[in-house]
Each structure stands twice: as structure tokens, then as C-alpha cells.
């Protein structure tokens, strides 16, 4: 899989493109060298043959046909194993002189050139060889063939062609290997940036991209990203400080206002005034609840993976939550079923997990009508522990499922019910801290009330997880404890 991912990288594709351009250039260069070399050698051979023909023509003009035959016999006798080829025959191809026994077979061009093979059929002794010659018709119906053995030239061409083929193969192999090595080196550095970015997205804002000290493009990119992260952290700390100030400046007055309204509620005797004061107290409670939920979500999202993780039995935790809500379900005559595996352990923050579980069970009861059905499950699925809540309520349309985790977002069907649209946002933040995945689906697809099934998949507890988290800083521990305390007191 790593090799396939390596081949898909833009660096490797760019190297591959460069390899194609480079290989094409090498091919054109080698082809030009071959064309010039082989063409020059072929031209030299033809010029040698033409020189032989010119010499024989001069002898023919001075001494006639008999002189021509005599000079050919003398040349053959002087160098019987030479490269030059001669043959003089009558009109019916009867041999008169030359070192070929019979007239060769081959395709003749319009200019009289012929390529043929020297073998036993022409009286050649030895292995077959290639030859090239030119043919003339001499006075009296005689035929004249003058040529040369070009087998060495053909062998040299084959050597050059083989060298070109091997050269192209080696070039492509080296270019491919070089592209892979360059891509691998670049991908490693990009992967370092990606890994650090993923840790930062998971909330580890103290992470920074390492540099090699080479001051190359990647080091400059890493330094710019690190400076950008420093600036972001500075701004986020400023926002967090403002949020804390708001919490300090507004929560206390709101609490006082709520207490004063409650005191007024207890003091008034008029029924109408008591009802109005009661509504004001409820509105103040709702405002405080919304305000506290926003602060909790913001703190969870900026903190990321908490370091205050301990082995938790999710089954026992959900059992405790179900005991709190069984009475509410009974009041609505709902069928509240439980299937809980108490041996299903995860590594997590118990207070945050309890808040997540409680929100989902509360939503299921709230949005399920009377005499409806609710099922809560906890089970082990390979390397994960799955928490699942199913109901027979109004459900969530498919086109809105992706939006329900946004703050203050409420499905159209549920706008008339109490709530502030922050419950699932808090669930999403807690699940992300525990590296969980959330899936929303219909419990009863196709029915008038499709219901909703919320499935949260959390990594199962492993001892090595504890060792990996042991080295994290104490600051996150303090922050987690503060969040857990805030969750417990606020709810």
C-alpha cells in the first residue's frame, strides 16, 4: 500500500514526467547518432563500390569486354577472400568471370542496387553473410555485378542498435529509480508536516513542525507554518481570556438575577405575578444553561485530546446513566431496553463520557413519543467499543444529518420542543477528544416515524495506550480536571 501511495504522489508524477522528457531527448539523440553513423558507413560502402565500378568502366573503355573479364579474373585471383564481389555472365546468366558461382537472388532497385545473402547458392564457402552490389548491362548482352561484403557493417549496426536499446532501458530504469527516491524523500518531509498538522487538528496546539536546519524550501515552509501557529495560539489565548472574562463578568450577574427572581417568586402572593416570575426564572435558567454549554464546548474543542484518561467500563457508566433516566421513560410509558457489556473497557475521561451518554439518552427520551421504544447498547467490536442509542422518534432527515453537530442548529421538526441546539455539539466535542467516530442513521427506515440511531465508535482500552499517554504534560491534566468539575457542577 505504501508503494501505491508513493506512486500517486505529485512528486513522483512530476519525476515521471521529467523521466519521459529526458528519455525522449536521449532517444532522439541516440537516433540521430545512429542515423549519422550507420548512414555514413553505408555511404562509404556505396562510394567504394562506385569507385570499383569507375575503375572497371575505365578498363572496359580501354580494353573492351575481354579486358574487363581479364581484370576481374586478376583481381579475384589476387584476393580470393576479399570483400569485393564480382560476377560477369552472359545474357542467360552463364558465368564468365568473378568470385560468385551464380547470379544472386534479391530485390533490385531502379538504380540497379541489389541486397542479397552470400551463401551456398552463389558458391560462397562459410557462414551466410550480407552483401550489396550494383548491376549493369554491358555491350553484347553481358551482365556485370560489382559489390562488397557488408556483413561487418550490418553487425556493427546491430551492435549500435543493441547499445541504443540497452541505453534507453538503463536510462528509463535510472530515471524511474531516481524519481522514486526523490519522491520518497519529498513525501517523507511532507508526511512529517501532515502528521504534525493532524496532531494540531486534534487539539495539540503545542506541536510544531520540525526543521532540518538546511534552510531549504521545506524548512522555510515549516518555519512560516510554525510562526502562523504561534500567532493562532496567541489569538486563541486572547479569545479564551476574553471568554473567561465574560464568564466572570456575566455568569455572576446572571446568577444573582436568577436568585433575585426566585426570591421574588417566593415572596409574591398574586398568582399571575408568581406565574410571570416563574417564567422569568425558567428563562434565566435556560440562558445560564446555554451560556455554560457554549463555554464547555469551546474549552473542549480548544483543548483536544485530554490527558486525564483512565480505564473506564463504558457498560457500567451507561448503566449509571440509564438508572437516572428510567423514571423519565416510565413517565412517558416508553419501552426502555438495555443491552450493556460491562467488560467493554475504553481509555477515557469518565465525567466527559457520562455527559455525552446522558445527552444522547436524554435526547432519545425527549424526541420519542409516549409508548415509543428506546434501546441503549454497549458492545465490543474488534478493536473498538460501540455505544448505540436507538429510538422511535421523529428522526432526522438525511439532508440535515450532517448539520446537527453545528452549534444552535435544530431540525425543523424539533424547533417547538425545549432545547438550545447545543447537545449534539457537546457530544461531538467529547467523542473527538476520545478519538471516536459518530454515525447517524434511521432506526426504522421508510416509516412515518423513522427514529434515530446514534452510533459512537470508541477505541478499546489497551495497556500500550496508557504508556503512550503517560508522557503527556501535567497542564492538560489540570485543564481536564477543571472541565470535569465544570461539567459536573453545571449540569
Notes on the structure:
The C terminus is likely disordered. A hairpin with a 3-residue loop joins strand 4 and strand 5. The longest helix is centred in the first third of the chain and has 69 residues. The chain is rod-shaped and about 155 Å long. The chain folds into three domains: 153 residues, Beta-Lactamase (2-Layer Sandwich); 103 residues, Signal transduction histidine kinase, dimerisation/phosphotransfer (DHp) domain (Helix Hairpins, Orthogonal Bundle); 185 residues, Histidine kinase-like ATPase, C-terminal domain (Heat Shock Protein 90, 2-Layer Sandwich), CATH 3.30.565.10. The two termini are 48 Å apart. The chain has a five-stranded antiparallel β-sheet. A five-stranded mixed β-sheet has the order 7-9-10-12-11, with helices on one face. Helix content is 57%, strand content 16%. Pfam families: HAMP (PF00672), HATPase_c (PF02518), HisKA (PF00512). GO terms for molecular function: kinase activity. It catalyses: ATP + protein L-histidine = ADP + protein N-phospho-L-histidine.
